[in-house]
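User: Hey, my collaborator sent me this sequence without any context and asked if I could get a structure. I don't really work with proteins. Can you help?
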Amino acid sequence: MELDGAENYFVMNVLTRLDCISEELSEFLKWEAKDGRPEKLGEFRMVTRLRIDPRNIPATLHVFRLCRWQVPIVVSERIRDSFIRAGLVGASFCPV
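Assistant: No problem. I've predicted the 3D structure and written it out in structure-token form, which is a compact way to encode the shape of the chain:
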């Protein structure tokens, strides 16, 4: 999708979601009853250290979001390296 009036900008809509957060290795807070959001009870509220379990990621999948915390877009090293080689800006990468 091209954005009107912005010839050099595009939207990446990532629809694939995987349940691959390693709760044992990650640091996070979950929504609790006292937070007053019953529809979010037990879901991730904030993740300060994200670690994923690579065993739950198909080898052919290179871009996805997380099922229970949809803030980040997770990409493989292959995609990250492609962005860097192409000189694309606006994204930051950190290992998970």
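In plain terms: Residues 50 and 95 are 9 Å apart (CA to CA). You can pass these tokens on to your collaborator as they are.
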